[in-house]
Amino acid sequence: MKNFIVTTTRKPDAATENFAEKISLKLGGQFVRREDFSFDALKKIHGAENILLVKKNSLGVVTAEGELFFHPNTAHLRIKNLRGGDGDRLTDALKISAGSKVLDCTLGLGSDAIVESFIVGESGKVVALEVNPLIAEVVRNGLKNFSEDSPHILQAMRRVEVVNVDCENFLKTCAENSFDVVYFDPMFRRPIKKSSGLNPIRPLADARPLTEEIIREACRVAKFRVVMKEHSGSAEFARLGFKILDGGKYSSVAFGVIDKGYRLL
Ligand SMILES: C[S@@+](CC[C@H](N)C(=O)[O-])C[C@H]1O[C@@H](n2cnc3c(N)ncnc32)[C@H](O)[C@@H]1O
Fold it and tell me: Is residue 174 part of a domain?
């Protein structure tokens, strides 16, 4: 991972500073007292590319593209729509329902994982993997502590289990059919920059393409289905053996599936 330091907001209380030191030990980045330095000055002095910023009740990463912080983003509206009886393209593609077990291999900012968690409920399970330790820490912390939303969204957030790991390594440790579905939302081969809320994640995110080996492993681990989101018209669907689902005619994203011949429910 690229070089980073850990610091706090200006004039932190003792608990915030202790927490920052604890995180720096956990992630291996140097803890630096903020004093009155600007982020640019700190980056220059310590030769750091990114800053993990510890605030009183949340975390952020100061990157070249802005600050990455946790927020439910699209999950809020999508769950509101689901509660109002509308569908959701992702959860329809996954074919999940209460009690399903989902392995989300690309946590990112966690919006998809929150919606999955809302659908599978308390009797189900969502394990979400993120290879970048800073993204994983910010989003894990946010899912645990974010408090400005309605109870059913907060409960869905709290239930997501975040693991900081490369999905290929994790999949290899999983037993056959141990999750109902496995989901991938990799960084698109052709980024949709204009409308994307993902810009601050770009300098940190792992943008390697998925491999045939990862998809083979996912097919072994999924009991029913493997799903991938990509740019509409992406050659990744054909390269990796996904059938593109109909729908989202006017959308720039598409969902592809590899079915194992069963249906959930
Ligand atoms: C497009 S984002 C996912 C967005 C997410 N679905 C959401 O709703 O916010 C892709 C994320 O997957 C992560 N990633 C890429 N390759 C990975 C891998 N091999 N294992 C685990 N995470 C990976 C990236 O670092 C990035 O954070």
Answer: yes
Tell me which of 131, 139, 165, 192 to substitute to probe ligand 1's pocket, judged by most ligand atoms within 8 Å of the beta carbon.
131
Identify the residue whose C-alpha is closest to ligand 1 atom 1.
Answer: 187
Instruction: Provide CB contacts within 8 A for 47, sequence distance 6+.
Output: 3
Same domain, 36 and 89: no
Asked whether residue 114 is assigned to any structural domain, the reply reads yes
Q: Which CATH number characterizes residue 139's domain?
A: 3.40.50.150
Q: Roughly what angle, to the nearest 10 degrees, separates helices 111-120 and 151-159?
A: 100
Pocket of ligand 1 (CB under 6 A): 105-106, 108-112, 129-132, 135, 166-168, 185-187, 198, 201, 205-206
Q: What is the pLDDT along the chain (265 residues), one digit of tens a residue?
A: 558 999 999 999 999 999 999 999 999 999 999 999 999 999 999 999 999 999 999 999 999 889 999 999 999 999 999 999 999 999 999 999 999 999 999 999 999 999 999 999 999 999 999 999 999 999 999 999 999 889 999 999 999 999 999 999 999 999 999 999 999 999 987 776 654 566 789 999 999 999 999 999 999 999 999 999 999 989 999 999 999 998 777 889 999 999 986 544 4
Same domain as 241, residue 154? yes
pTM of the predicted model as reported, rounded to 2 decimal places: 0.95
